Structures are given as structure tokens and as C-alpha cells.
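Assess this one:

_____
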Amino acid sequence: MAFEAFVVGMLTSADQAQQWIISIASSFRITLIPYYLLSIFLLAFAYHLLLVTSGPNEPPLIKGYIPFLGVALSFATNPEPFLLDAQRRYGDIFTIYVAGRRMHIIGDPVNAIPAVYRNFKTFTFSILSNNFDIVLFGVSEKQAKDEALYKDNLTALAPNLLSQSAVETLINKFNKNLQPVLSREVEKLDIEGQLSKEGVVIDFIQWLRKIMFEASGKALFGDTWPSDDSFLDDFVGFENGMYDILKRYPSFMTRSAINARERYYHRLVEMFQKPLVNPGPLIPERLKVSTPDCKS
């Protein structure tokens, strides 16, 4: 009995010692919590101050002093004065760091946007481009996220849209196509000299859109560009529903616009199945860019 009591006493003492050790360890861990929190806080500040920086070809970065949040509070509470002040200090193109993300701000669309397109390695627009391609234009996700295709497209677009000579060529082609289209549409209004008599009442916006749509299309794609009203109507139907499509409204609200888009695409496919007659310099270069389905 004495031996059994001794053993029980030893086990009890061991349990007490274990509980004592656990209690000390728990107290030690609790004591270290403030140090853990302080370490995380200091690491966050160090990361924000030392590693959140702009690259050599990137615009000035306004990141504030708060880790992760950056300038989110200033931007959210009073955005207009904040952005105007940043524009005065940093110029027309700058970047703000908000909630862990970088937002490029373009303050002057006339001078800044061409600079942005020329520097497409920095301003990739990949997230926005993917969203538009997949949701709005119905491109497959595989094709929309093909980085090589995206790069090839930009390589073809940049020299044919941004250089001064390319812009002048495009403007000249547009003007040459505008003159006959405008003359034709004016003649349609001047039945039996109506314009020189009482005049004609028209929806000027619709009338002008038809002219600009055809002249612009022919400046890019040549004389093969369709000129019938149904082609324009489908484009307008698609254009009018773009917001609803991008906002992912229910199908019954977007069906009409999507059907118009598909009819419009079908006409484009028919056009490309024929040789393009007198196209602008951009389209032949763009047609050389292979899609994922065409790559070997």
C-alpha cells in the first residue's frame, strides 16, 4: 500500500509539474504577443517604405505612409482636391497606391494618353483589357489571356496608330472616304431641290453617325466595308447595350445587344473572307497576328 501511495504521489506530482510547465509556457506566449504584433507592424512599415516603389520607366508613385492602405483614406474622403494637388505636384501621369493596388491616373487625355500607349510595357491594361474582351466582346478566356497574342497586337498597333506619319496617313484616308460618303448622303436629302427650298428636318446625330461610321470603317478596312443600314443598326444596338453587358445584367436585359453584336461579327467575318480593297496600313499588319487557334 505504501508503494502504491508513493507511485500515486509521484504521478500526481508529475501532473502538477506538467501543468506548471504548461502554465509558464502559456504565460510566456501571452507575454510575447505584443512583440509579435510589433514585429509584424515594423515589417509592414519596412515593406511599405522600402519595397513599394516605382520602377525606372513608371510614373511617380504616391504611396502615403500607411502600410497596405497607402493613400486610400485621403483618396476616399476627398478625391478631387487630392488628385488635383497630386497633378500639380507630379504632372499629368502619376500612380497612387490604394489598398495594396496601384492605380495609374491620367490627368490630361490630350497629351498623356499617347504617352501611355507608347509606354505599353508599363501600362499593360491587362485586367481591364481581359474584362472587356471576355465580357463585352465575347472573346474566349484562352484567347483573351494569351500574353503572346496581347503583345503581338500592341506591337502591330503602336507603330500604325501612334507615329506622326501613321496618323497623317489615317487622316488622309479618312478625308478621302468622307467626301464621297458626305456628298451621297446630302444628295439623299436634296430630293427635288428640297434643301434649297423649305429645307429638311433630320436627326442630325443619327445622320452624322452614319457618315462617320462608314468613312471611318473604309479608312481602316477599305472599300470592302459594308455601307448598308442594317450593318450600322447592329453596331448601334451593340453599342447601346455595352453598359448592361459590362455590368453583367441578366440575359433578358442584354440578349438584344448580344444578338446585335453577333450579327455584326458575322458581317465582319464575311468581309474578311473577301480580299480587302484599298485598306489602311493598320489592318493588313493586324491580320498577320495569329490567334491561339491558328498557331501551330
User: Anything to note?
Assistant: Confidence is low (pLDDT under 50) at residues 2-11.
